[in-house]
Amino acid sequence: MTLWSGTLMVMVYRQLKRFIRARSRVVGSIVNPLIWLGLFGIGWSSFFRGRLLPGLPNGASYLGFLAPGVVIMSTFIGGFIAGITVIWDKEFGFLKELLVAPASRAAGIVGRAIGDALSATLQGAIVLVGAIFLVSGLNPLGAPLALLAAFLTSLVFTGLGILVALKISSMEGFHLLVSLIMMPVMFLSDIFYPLGPLPSWMKAIAMMNPLTYAVDLARAGLAGAGEISPEISLVALIMISIVLLAADAKVFEKTTIS
Amino acid sequence: MDEEEVGEDFNNPRLRELGVDRATMPTAVEARELSRRFGDLTAVDHVSFEVGEGEIFGFLGPNGAGKTTTINMLITLLKPNDGTARVAGYDVVREPDQVRKRIGVVFQDPSSDRELTGYENLWIHGMIYGVPRSELAARIRKLLEFVELWDWRNVLMKRYSGGMIRRLEIARGLLHDPSILFMDEPTIGLDPQTRTKLWEYTIDVRRERGTTIFLTTHYMEEAERLCDRVAIIDHGRILALDKPSNLVKSMGGDVIYVKLLNGSSELLVSKLMERGVLLDHRPAGSTLMLRVFDAPTVMPIIFDIANFLGIKISEVSYRRPTLEDVFLYYTGRSLRDSEADWRETARVRARRGMRR
Ligand SMILES: Nc1ncnc2c1ncn2[C@@H]1O[C@H](COP(=O)(O)OP(=O)(O)OP(=O)(O)O)[C@@H](O)[C@H]1O
Ligand SMILES: [Mg+2]
To answer: What pLDDT is stored for residue B332 in this prediction?
Structure first.
C-alpha cells in the first residue's frame, strides 16, 4: 500500500470512527428527520388529503412526496456539518499534525471527505429504512438509487463544508455560516414542494442547487416521480462533487498555519 | 545529572559522556539569518544558529519571544520572509517533504484527536508517515510502554490529563523514527513531577536513538538540566548562545538586586561606576540588577552611597549567578514576570480545552 492510499484510508477510518463514537449526534441526526417526516409530513398530508396537488402525480400523497426529500435532507445536514468540523481540527490542532506530515495533503483531505460522506450516507440509510416502514407507497426497489443520491449529496456538501471551513479563519463564523447557508439551501430546493408551481426566480435558483438534483433522483427511485431526468441529475452531482473535492485538495495544499 | 557535576566542570557532562564535541558534530539544524514578520511586527529577526546531530538544543525565551515562530519555520509550516534554514540537510522551503519525513514534532498546544484513543492516534500517525504496516503495531507498543501509557491505550484522549497528552504526543513524534525531534514548550503547565518525568524521557530518547532534540522553554531549570546548549531569545533575536554553564560563568562574580523606595537609580549607578565597583547593571522590572566581582565588599559601598544621596533602599539581595540571572541580564525580564505570563497562557489553554 502506498503512502497515498494509506493516508486516504486512514482518514476515512478516522472519520467513521469519530462518527460512530458520537452516539448522541448520530441519534439526533436520525431522530430529527423522522420528526420532520412524522409531524411536519403528517400535518401537511392531512391538510392535503383528497385534494389534487399541483406538480404531483395524481393520487400521490404529500408524505410519499416528502419522504425522499427528508432522506436527502438528513444526508445534506450530516455531510455539511461534518465538512465544517474541519474548523474543530484547526482549533484543536489535529490539522497541524496532518500539515507537518510527509503524506499527500490531497489524500488526507479527500480521505476525510469520503469518510464524512460515508458517515452521512449511513445516517441517510437509516432514515431511508425508517421512511420505507413509516410511509406507505414508497418503492423499496428504488432504495439503491436513493442511496446513491444520498452518497453524492453528502460528497458534494462535505466538500463544500470543508472548503468553507478552510477559508474561514475563526470559530465565530461557524454558527452564522451554518444558519446562513443551511436553511436557504433546503428551502431553495425541491425537498418540501415540487418545483413546478414555484415562481420563476425561485425555480431558477433551485435549478442551480445540487440538492434539487439529489432529491429528484431519490424521488425518482422511491416515488417514481422525478421532474428531471435521472441521467442529468447523476452527471451533475458527480461533476459538482469532483470539482469541490479538487478545490478542497487545492486549498489544503496551500494551507499554512497563520 | 546532578547539580554538583555542573559546579565542578563547566563542560556539559552529558556531552562528555557521549564523547563528542560540538565542533566535530555533523549539523542537524542550520539557520541563517532566518526572519519572519507579521505585519509590522518582526517575530523572528535574522536569527542564525546551528544544532549538531545528537545534541539537545534549547531556545529559552519569555512569552512572545519568537520561539514558536522559529519552530514553525523549521518544521515547514511557515515560510520565512528572509534567510534560510536546513533541517537534516534539506532546505525547509525548497524540500519540505524531505524535511517532514525526518522530523518529529510535539506542538506547543495539543494536536491529538481527543475523540480517539491514544492507540488510534498513534496508528493514524503511523499511516500518514508511511510506517510499514508490518512494524507499526510493534513500534506503537514499544513507544507506549516507553512513555508508560500502554495501559491507557484504549482510553479516549479526552480523558487524558495534560501530562498524559504530552507523553502520548512525544511517543507520536518518535513513531516514524525521526532524526530530529522538535518540542515546543514540552512541559508548560505541568506539575513538577510530570516535568521531571518528561526530562527523563527526553534524555533517554537521545541516549537510545541518538535523536537530535530542539526544544523551547521558558523554564530555567529545564534549560539548565536538559540542554547541551541554550540560546536566549527575546524580541526575535538571539541574545546569547552557549552551554548553560558557560552562560553562567560569563556573568563573572556576583549579582546584587536592589529595590529603591525613592530616589534615582541612575544616580546610584553613576556613583557606583565612579567608584569602579560595577561590572555592569540592568534594570529588571522595578528592581536594579548589579553585576559585581564580590558582593560582600560592594554591599556596604552601596548602602554608603545611598545614604549619602538620601536614597532609601527597600530590598537588597545578592547571590552567585544562575541561569535565571543570565536570563534576566539579557532580557530584562524577571522570572516572576514570565511566570505570571505562563500562568496566563495555561489558563487560556485550559479554557480552550473546555470549549467543545
Ligand atoms: N500568526 C500571527 N499573526 C500575527 N502575529 C503573530 C502570529 N504568530 C505569532 N505572532 C506574534 O509574534 C510574536 C512571537 O510569537 P511566538 O508565538 O513565536 O512567541 P513564543 O516565543 O512562542 O511565545 P509563547 O511563549 O507565548 O509561546 C508574538 O508577538 C506574537 O504575538
Ligand atoms: Mg510559543
So the answer is: 81
The environment of the single-atom ion ligand 2, i.e. residues with CB closer than 5 A, is: B 67-68, 108
Q: Domain containing B124 — which CATH number?
A: 3.40.50.300
**Rounded Cα gap, residues B166 and B160, in angstroms:** 10
Q: Which of B105, B112, B116 sits opposite A100 (nearest CB)?
A: B105
CA distance B236 to B70: 9
Quote the ligand 2 centre to B226 CA distance (angstroms).
18
Is residue A214 scored above 60 in pLDDT?
yes
Residues of B in contact with A252 (CB under 8 A): none
Cβ neighbour number for residue B282 with a 10 Å cutoff: 16
What pLDDT sits at residue A25? 78
The domain boundary residue, chosen from B247, B275, B294: B247
Cα separation values, B320 from A149, B12, B256, B296, B334, Å: 76, 19, 9, 11, 16
DSSP B28-82: EEEEEEEEEEETTEEEEEEEEEEEETT-EEEEE--TTSSHHHHHHHHTTSS--SE
* pLDDT exceeds cutoff 60 at B16: no
**A13-43 per-position pLDDT tens digit:** 999 999 999 888 788 888 889 899 889 988 8
**A256 vs B78, B111, B123: nearest CB:** B78
B167–A contact, CB cutoff 8 A:
no
pLDDT, position A258: 61
Interchain CB distance below 8 Å, A100 and B75:
yes
For residue A91, which residues of chain B lie inside 8 Å, CB to CB?
352
Q: Quick one: B135 and B150 in the same domain?
A: yes
| Cross-chain residue pair B97–A102, CB shorter than 8 Å | yes
Q: Let me know if residue B107 belongs to a domain.
A: yes
Residue ranges per structural domain of chain A: 3-253
pTM, entire model = 0.88
Contact A14 B109 (CB under 8 A): no
Shared domain check, B277 and B166: no
Domain for residue B352, yes or no? Answer: no
Indicate which atom in ligand 1 lies nearest the CA of residue A258. 1
ipTM for this model: 0.90
Q: What is the largest CA-CA distance in chain A?
A: 64
Q: How far away, in angstroms, is B123 Cα from ligand 2 center?
A: 27
- Single residue among B247, B263, B288 that ends a domain in this structure: B247
* B128 interfacial to chain A (CB closer than 8 Å): yes
Q: Are B61 and B331 in contact (CB under 8 A)?
A: yes
Q: Please tell me whether residues B48 and B166 are part of one structural domain.
A: yes
- Determine, yes or no, domain membership for B346: no
Q: What is the pLDDT of residue A59?
A: 65
Is residue B280 a contact partner of residue B238, using CB atoms and an 8 Å limit? no
Residue of A nearest to B349 (CA): A92
Residue B73 sits at the chain A interface (C-beta within 8 Å): no
Q: Is residue B326 part of a domain?
A: no
pLDDT in tens, A83-116: 988 988 888 889 999 999 999 999 999 999 999 9
Domain containing residue B236:
3-247
CATH of the domain at B294: 3.30.70.980
How many structural domains does chain B have?
A: 2
B332: left (phi over 0), alpha (psi -120 to 50) or beta: left
**Same domain as B258, residue B236:** no
Q: From the CB of B172, is ligand 1 less than 6 Å away? A: no
